[in-house]
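Input record (one chain):
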Amino acid sequence: MDSYALSDATVVTPRKIRSSVSLLIQGGKVAGYGRDAPKSLKVGSASVVYPALVNVHDHLRGNYLPPIGPPEGSFYTNWSAWDVDLKASPAYQERSAIDIGRMYLLGAYKNLFSGVGTVNDHFPHELNAAQLPGLPIRAIAEYCLAHECSSFDLKWGDGIEIEHQRAVERNWPFITHLEEGFDSESQDGVGILERAGMLDEYDVLIHCIGLSDEDIRKIKRAQATVAWCPASNMLMFNVTCKIRKLLRAGVNVALGTDSTHTGSINLLAEMKYARDCYRSMYGEELPAKTLFDMVSTNPAKALRLEGKVGVLEPGAFADIAIFKARFEDPYENLCAAGSEDLELLTMAGKPVYGDEARFGSFFEAEIEDFGRVKVGGRTMFVKGDPAALYQGVRNSVGFAKRLDYLPFEP
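The corresponding structure, as predicted from the sequence alone:
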């Protein structure tokens, strides 16, 4: 279906909330508001239309459970100690029975079932290039990276200097874990980048739990982005970044899940955790609108995709997530939403997931060969066959493994 409209809709973008409008989709992009289309689908007041969410940081091949953390009452000094514990864990041994292609699909569905349309997989191209094109959502391919700016780096890519230079030349993000620990080298991450002339607007700096106040000022001046993964930080280190100071300084902050071995089960759960964490740290609320920005325009800016994802304005990809309207304020509504509230997800105007009873006849031709799962008592059509994937995982590990980010039974 090349052209259609979502009519009588409440449409939420970071810039504006539009009520009782018609959103026109044409050629996979947002064409405008209040215009006619050959086909029109009435949304109504029981639902809210959002741009599909953007997850700035995930490890798609690492989305397995249970979480792996330090012994109770302790914490890691840097990420490398966690890696040792992970690889010695029964969960990792289980995970090793599942081939990489299926692990990537699990990671993609983790995001899809929470309304995410675009995700960054923090692995080098030589490890994920064959996997990303076949996923049911958009995993960006245009990025450069270093695993970490320290001697604990896993030496991904072609080296920090080359990767950063390439990012600048191509107008791609340069993505790296930074200051993920308490040792002196980890806490010098901003200094390492600054001395090398690589602290700039292309940087997406993940975790940043060791930032000093001066580091925050330098990041703001450089117009770099901080990727905040509070659930992962608290599990591994019992602390997260100085999020209130980052926000007050005007730093671009985007929310990421990390993998489920340390982070939340999906981005909707991470949004709830972020609010709880902020409230616990500061005794005040993190505004719902601020959180919405962290999963829409802020990661779009970080990933050099401004105006393409995270918004529903003319020229943007028609990546749309429709959620049930349970709260009057649309931003609060999203912050409270769970996977059971997601009613429709489209990518570039094409459905990838939705309520069969409500949207099936409208998208009939596009979903003819889709799979079906039961979520929250509803039959949902879904691109691919996650039920067979789930059963295949269970067959591989030899028992009925529960993966909480798959909200159905196969």
